[in-house]
Design a protein that fits this description.
HIT family, subunit A, 31% helix, alpha+beta, 4 helices, 149 residues
Length: 149
């Protein structure tokens, strides 16, 4: 049995770990044989290769529920075009993304009570998926800015 099959079999015992392992495998195998074009997990979601619970979508952006929510309401908002992180995003993308995020907050009915908007940049910033994304956390009183070790 190869290492990948053994790893999947072992981690299927614990569904939470299995999901994290599955998404890690997708990220690790994110560079397909199609001319070296980046295909991260979020690109695969945009292409319909991985299912999601869509909250809102337009021609340029997609919002969906996080599979590992950190608050009562936890949405992910991404541009459909691959952008590595906030450090590489252009002003035009952000010009469209800002009103889209505001529209998502209204769709989630959190725009009046408040929400936290987070993007992580690079390894030290805690970015796990190499595709620009914003987390919308809401639905409860959020405490603390960062997790302490």
């Amino acid at each position: 049995m190869n290492k990948t099959k053994f790893g999947l079999l072992y981690l299927m015992i614990n569904s939470t770990l299995y999901l994290k392992f599955y998404y890690t495998l997708v990220i690790i195998k994110s560079i397909p044989k199609n001319k070296g074009k980046m295909m991260c997990i979020f690109c695969k979601i945009v292409n319909g290769e991985i299912p999601n619970n869509t909250i809102l979508e337009n021609e340029d952006f997609l919002a969906f529920e996080d599979i590992n929510p950190q608050a009562k309401v936890h949405a992910i908002v991404i541009p459909k075009a691959h952008v590595q992180s906030f450090a590489q995003v252009d002003a035009k993308t952000m010009e469209g993304m800002t009103p889209f995020i505001q529209e998502v907050s209204k769709k989630l009915n959190v725009h009046n009570d408040g929400y936290r908007l987070i993007t992580n940049i690079g390894n030290n910033g805690g970015q796990e998926v190499p595709h620009l994304h914003f987390h919308i956390l809401a639905g409860e009183q959020l405490r603390g800015l960062v997790n302490r070790k």
